[in-house]
Amino acid sequence: MPEHAVVMACDAGYAPYAVALAASIARHHPDRDFDICLCSQEAIALPAAFAGLGLRLVRLPAENPFEGGPNQSRHGAQTYLRLLIPELLAVDYARLLYLDSDILCTGPGLGRLMATDMRGRWLAAVRDNQQWRTPGRRAAEFRALGRAARPYFNAGVALIDTAGWAAADVGRQAVDLFRTKGTAMTRHDQSLLNLIADGKWAELSPVWNWQYTWSSRFFADLAEPRLVHFIGARKPWKDRGAALPARFRAPYAGIAADWPGMPTLDMAGPQVAGWPPRAGRMFLKHWWSAKRMQGYLARFP
How far apart are CA 66 and CA 179, in angstroms? Predict the structure, then answer.
């Protein structure tokens, strides 16, 4: 068994989008030396068309210690299930690369990423986009708990050293913090992990978690990201207004063709053309922030 794995957590309804991510990883890593694991509390049956992806299906425990607490996301307590994965898979893997399911892989290199020097930290990640241009900004969770500003990461992509995770007792800390300070967890599992790490994490280049928004899309062509993360409510499978480039919608249309019962895609049709919505505002935002973004990107080789 490989030492490293890419892992995703989802329910049956979100499984097709996670499989679209897995397919994009497999396409760019035909000779991969890592596993791809799909983790869920539910039994997920993959259509025969996706058997060639070689996914490992992992059943998560039925009990969820985050059930019934405050600040549940639209996905409920399931959004915290990812926090159970490192301890569950530590016996099999030394490194895990956790990915949210609303991500696409756009190039190779994940094997090299998982072997990177984490500088003794149990977690490596990319800054949240709120700190790309203003790195000193204090996140809402830190303000709510009276803590000083810290480097703050987006938890949609997290490289985890499983031994370090266990040594830091991250799982227990997360449950305790959730139960005692749950109202401050405005970003759910991301809040928990940032408060536990308290700025002591290894920072990765944004090419490994390009948080794709109207204010960062043009800079993506300069950075050439390998993992594109569709944060917020706008997803490629829900993009009737054509706010995202068509190349991001195509993988989901391909999955839908081979997935009986997949939720109906809400995409723009071929008749939609022209500039993306709010194009003028978009150009002005990029012009205004160009120097700061250049400085941020220049920090990474």
Answer: 8
Task: Say how far apart CA 201 and CA 51 lie, in whole Å.
Answer: 36
- Condensed to tens digits (0 to 9), the pLDDT of residues 257-276 reads 999 989 889 987 766 656 67
Alpha-carbon distance 9 to 61, whole Å?
12
Q: How far apart are CA 71 and CA 250, in angstroms?
A: 34
* Under 8 Å between Cβ of 103 and 93: no
E strands, 11-167, where?
A: 35-40, 56-59, 95-99, 103-105, 123-127, 153-161
Q: How many angstroms separate the CA atoms of 301 and 208, rounded?
A: 13
* Mode of pairing for the β-strands spanning 227-229 and 266-267: unpaired
Q: What is the pLDDT of residues 86-118, one digit of tens each?
A: 999 999 999 999 999 999 999 999 999 999 999
For tokens 């709010």, the residue is: 278
Torsion of CA 131, 231, 124, 24, to 10 degrees: -140
Beta bridge partners of 35: 5
Backbone torsions φ then ψ of 105, nearest 5 degrees: -90, 130
Any idea what the Cα angle at residue 30 is, between residues 26 and 51, rounded to 5°?
A: 50
CA-CA-CA-CA torsion sign (100, 103, 108, 109)? negative
Burial (Cβ within 10 Å: 0-12, 13-18, ≥19) of residue 289: middle
Quote the pTM value: 0.94
Predicted local distance difference test score (pLDDT) of residue 71: 55
Query: From CA 178, how far away is CA 171, in angstroms rounded?
Result: 11
Closest CA to 105 of 19, 44, 193, 2: 19
Cα distance between residue 279 and residue 85, in whole Å: 41
